[in-house]
């Protein structure tokens, strides 16, 4: 999906103090990246109805503030997966982060650590899980898919244990890839391929091409086990169809739970019945998620499923809201509805694309400040003070 855009030369320092919110970082990322890379971050499936609805759904809720409360010290901290976080928003797993900035996953992990939160590592990372684990001492979760080669999946579990990951997250909503038409229109492939369709956009971003596009690219966690690219160029659709196991069932989730003795998370559930099943299986948390609107279009927004998920969980596991959060108030709404925490992907990727580690840190810091300010304006001293009575659905 091409559109006219004036790129920002990479040799011109990004003025981060002029970027105030997620929308600002999105625009900076749009100008920094070739069109295929930006649209890969930004796009969704089919008509992108769910992508838009994920954020728009928060506008269906209003917040009722309480007044005359001492908010001189607002505590945004929580405990998640046995680790203390400074605020209740963490970084969701996102694939192939090096596509957006040559510092890749290491920079994102350091940004998470700098803002006092957890970083989630994708199976399809462009940096090995061991290297990311050693990049910072902060809390980390490893996200896993079930590959056709079950031995490769079992190996992920052992590597996560050896590297000291605090939690393991199984993504279950990708038996096949959603119809991501933006990627088809821009000619997006892994690794990036310079075609006639994308030539002008790549030519307008030479620094990206030199530092990232030609800087080497591999799916480091799977490269040795037959799941890497091995010099091949393909679409993400082709990769998923050849590598991921579409026969995935609850029995596979049970198998993974048995092989992991730490906090176990299932990502991609949306129905209350599935949340209850996850609780019976022994999961410690579920991430209510539609994969950022990138899988089934017309799926409901995660925030609209939080209350039902919390009821189905009945205190047996934590519920996490994943998707659509662009403002701190969005996270606070989800927390008031009963979510234990929230996760974000695009907001920190926009920051990373705009200015590497510094950009990701700035984007997260602004979001963190918004969470604190929202709580203060509500008259809340801490996260525990939130309840469903603080928000009303219009």
What's the gist of this structure?
This protein has 394 residues and is α/β, with parallel strands linked by helices. Helices cover 40% and strands 12% of the residues. α4 packs parallel to α15 (346-378) and α12 packs across α13.
Overall description:
- This protein has about 400 residues and is α/β, with parallel strands linked by helices.
- It has a single domain, classed as Aldolase class I (TIM Barrel, Alpha-Beta Barrel).
- The protein is about 40% helix and about 10% strand.
- An eight-stranded parallel β-sheet has the order 4-11-10-9-8-7-6-5.
- Helix 12 packs across helix 13 and helix 14 crosses helix 15.
- It is globular, with a radius of gyration of 20 Å.
- The two termini are about 35 Å apart.
CATH fold-level assignment: TIM Barrel
Percentage of residues in strands? 5-15%
Largest sheet: 8 strands, parallel
Secondary structure tally, helices: 15
Mean pLDDT: 90
The spatial strand order of the largest sheet comes to 4-11-10-9-8-7-6-5
SSE order in H/E notation?
HHHEEEEHEHEHEHHHHHEHEHEHEHE
Number of strands: 12
**CA radius of gyration:** 20 Å
CATH architecture: Alpha-Beta Barrel
CATH superfamily, by name, is Aldolase class I
How many angstroms does the end-to-end distance come to? Answer: 35 Å
Number of domains: 1
Task: Please bin the fraction of helical residues.
Answer: 40-55%
| The CATH top-level class label | Alpha Beta
Give the overall shape. globular
């Amino acid at each position: 999906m091409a559109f006219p855009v004036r790129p920002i030369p990479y040799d011109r320092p990004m003025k981060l103090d002029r970027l105030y919110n997620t929308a600002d970082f999105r625009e900076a990322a749009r100008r920094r990246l070739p069109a295929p890379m930006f649209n890969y971050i930004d796009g969704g499936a089919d008509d992108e109805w769910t992508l838009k609805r994920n954020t728009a759904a928060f506008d269906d809720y209003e917040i009722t503030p309480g007044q005359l409360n001492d908010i001189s010290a607002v505590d945004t901290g929580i405990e998640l997966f046995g680790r203390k976080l400074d605020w209740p928003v963490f970084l969701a797993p996102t694939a192939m982060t090096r596509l957006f900035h040559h510092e890749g996953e290491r920079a994102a992990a350091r940004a998470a650590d700098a803002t006092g939160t957890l970083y989630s590592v994708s199976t399809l990372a462009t940096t090995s899980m061991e290297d990311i684990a050693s990049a910072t001492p902060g809390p980390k979760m490893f996200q896993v898919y079930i590959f056709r080669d079950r031995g490769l999946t079992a190996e992920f579990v052992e590597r996560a244990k050896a590297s000291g990951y605090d939690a393991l997250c199984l993504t279950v909503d990708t038996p096949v890839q959603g119809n991501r038409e933006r990627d088809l229109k821009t000619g997006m492939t892994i690794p990036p391929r310079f075609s006639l369709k994308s030539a002008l956009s790549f030519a307008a971003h030479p620094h990206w091409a030199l530092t990232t596009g030609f800087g080497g690219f591999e799916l480091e966690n799977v490269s040795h086990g037959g799941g890497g690219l091995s010099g091949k160029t393909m679409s993400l659709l082709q990769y998923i169809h050849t590598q991921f196991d579409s026969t995935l069932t609850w029995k596979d989730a049970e198998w993974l739970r048995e092989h992991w003795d730490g906090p176990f998370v299932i990502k991609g559930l949306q129905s209350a019945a599935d949340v209850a099943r996850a609780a019976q299986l022994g999961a410690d948390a579920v991430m209510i998620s539609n994969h950022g609107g990138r899988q089934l279009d017309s799926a409901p927004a995660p925030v609209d499923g939080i209350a039902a998920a919390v009821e189905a969980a009945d205190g047996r596991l934590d519920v996490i809201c994943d998707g659509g959060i662009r403002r701190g108030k969005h996270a606070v709404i989800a927390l008031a509805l009963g979510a234990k925490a929230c996760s974000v992907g695009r907001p920190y990727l926009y920051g990373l694309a705009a200015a590497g580690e510094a950009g990701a840190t700035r984007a997260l810091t602004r979001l963190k400040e918004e969470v604190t300010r929202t709580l203060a304006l509500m008259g809340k001293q801490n996260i525990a003070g939130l309840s469903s009575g603080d928000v009303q659905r219009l």
